[in-house]
């Protein structure tokens, strides 16, 4: 048995898949025998250290338990691959199993924690977080996240990157920053005490995502009558500066160090993506069918409203009633029927538009229509070509619905320009908001 294990370890060192199956024919339970040991260098450990991707993938498929198996030093295979500089192979393995980022080794250290230790691993950090965002919540036996690890090993570049990613991409970032380690320190307290221990040059660690230093934040708290005199004294002794006193610093990962105006929108999109992942394909298809049915029914209801449509034009009032101007779309929801006399109307307008119940019908029907459109766009996001096509078609369908609504409510002719003016106003306002935001930050 021991002789076969030694031979298998040599085969794993060479990465020879054919020889592996030759030795398996001699003992089909050889991998099971190795798996019986709680701590052992498996063939996956050896091939991962040597950088043999095909052999490592073969072991992961045949024996998934090897992925989390620790050797006598307490290291999992993927952790050994990182220690030996096999980052390219690690990235290839992540394409087949993203949860490898969360495999815990000695002291519950994960690959994300390891990447936060060494300088120059920003690309690796970004790769890990992109394939498995939940890994940011993993903690060690000291209840430390990757942010704690980066600070503990004086990797300020990784710390700034992680904070930037956390605030931009993770909707529950506050829970991570408020997490306490075994000493009872939150991330903020841990960061301040650690940076102050390093010396004055780290107190002004550039600015936060609101373009403020720690001293600026304390000044704001003091204006809100929050007692922070002790922390203020510590920062003053360490030589803290305000944001206006700091030099401008550019970074290759600057986009993670600033909070853009669209950050809240990106957080909503991220939450939406997380929700969509929890919806099974069957439920998603059922919701799409129901939403499409509701869109069809509500649109048809506008084309054929209760009471029917006038088939002729009547521009002159009867002798028993005074001429009345065409009602606006907003007045339809408020007007009540106070006369049975036929009033001026246009062909295609609703006969019952003067009644109070018609206003309620239009309101609820429009609510169901636009909500159903929103659900369809949510379930088929514009990340692919079919999503973009659906989004564009939905916009034109909404415009058609709005025009039909204006016709049956006998809205003024000039209101048709709302279709052109309103989207243009929204576009201009959004551009001005972005420009003003960039100007204020600059």
Short description:
It is built from 20 helices and no strands. It is mainly α and 442 residues long.
What does this structure look like?
This protein has 442 residues and is mainly alpha-helical. The chain has two domains: 2-198, Ankyrin repeat-containing domain (Serine Threonine Protein Phosphatase 5, Tetratricopeptide repeat, Alpha Horseshoe); 279-411. Helix content is 56%, strand content 0%. The chain contains 20 helices and no strands. The chain has helices at 2-14, 17-26, 30-35, 43-50, 53-62, 77-83, 87-96, 111-117, 122-131, 146-152, 156-169, 173-177, 187-198, 214-223, 229-237, 263-277, 281-303, 356-379, 385-408, 418-441. Helix 8 runs antiparallel to helix 9 and helix 10 (146-152) packs antiparallel against helix 11. It is elongated. The N and C termini lie far apart (70 Å). Residues 281-380 form the PGG domain. It comes from Quercus lobata (Valley oak). ANK repeats lie at residues 73-100.
């Amino acid at each position: 048995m021991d002789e076969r294990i030694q031979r298998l370890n040599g085969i794993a060192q060479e990465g020879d898949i054919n020889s592996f199956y030759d030795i398996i024919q001699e003992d089909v339970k050889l991998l099971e025998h190795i798996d019986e040991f709680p701590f052992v260098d498996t063939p996956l450990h050896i091939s991962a250290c040597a950088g043999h991707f095909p052999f490592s993938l073969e072991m992961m498929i045949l024996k998934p338990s090897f992925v989390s198996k620790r050797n006598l030093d307490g290291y999992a295979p993927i952790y050994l691959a990182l220690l030996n500089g096999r980052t390219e192979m690690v990235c290839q393995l992540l394409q087949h199993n993203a949860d490898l980022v969360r495999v815990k080794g000695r002291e519950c250290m994960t690959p994300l924690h390891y990447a936060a230790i060494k300088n120059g691993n920003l690309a690796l950090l970004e790769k890990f977080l992109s394939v498995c965002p939940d890994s940011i919540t993993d903690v060690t036996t000291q209840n430390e996240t990757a942010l704690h690890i980066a600070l503990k090993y004086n990797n300020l570049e990784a710390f700034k990157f992680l904070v930037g990613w956390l605030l931009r991409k993770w909707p529950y970032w506050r829970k991570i920053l408020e997490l306490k380690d075994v000493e009872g320190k939150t991330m903020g307290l841990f960061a301040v005490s650690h940076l102050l221990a390093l010396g004055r040059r780290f107190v002004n660690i550039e600015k936060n995502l609101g373009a403020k230093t720690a001293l600026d934040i304390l000044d704001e708290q003091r204006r809100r009558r929050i007692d922070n005199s002790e922390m203020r004294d510590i920062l003053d002794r360490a030589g803290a500066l305000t944001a206006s006193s700091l030099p401008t610093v550019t970074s290759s990962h600057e986009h993670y160090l600033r909070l853009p105006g669209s950050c809240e929108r990106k957080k909503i999109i991220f939450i939406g993506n997380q929700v969509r992942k929890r919806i099974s394909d069957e439920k998603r298809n059922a919701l799409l069918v129901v939403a499409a049915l509701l869109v069809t029914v509500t649109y048809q209801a506008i084309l054929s409203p209760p009471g029917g449509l006038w088939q002729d034009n009547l521009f002159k009032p009867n002798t028993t009633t005074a001429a009345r101007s065409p009602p606006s779309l907003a007045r339809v929801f408020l007007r009540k029927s106070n006369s049975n006399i036929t009033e001026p109307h246009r062909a295609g307008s609703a006969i019952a538009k003067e009644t109070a119940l018609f206003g309620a019908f239009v309101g609820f029907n429009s609510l169901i229509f636009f909500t159903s459109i929103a659900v369809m766009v949510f379930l088929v996001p514009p990340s692919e070509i079919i999503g973009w096509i659906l989004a564009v078609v939905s916009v034109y369908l909404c415009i058609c619905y709005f025009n039909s609504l204006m016709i049956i409510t006998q809205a003024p002719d000039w209101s048709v320009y709302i279709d052109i003016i309103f989207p243009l106003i929204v576009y201009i306002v959004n551009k001005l908001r972005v420009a003003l935001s960039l100007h204020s930050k600059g």
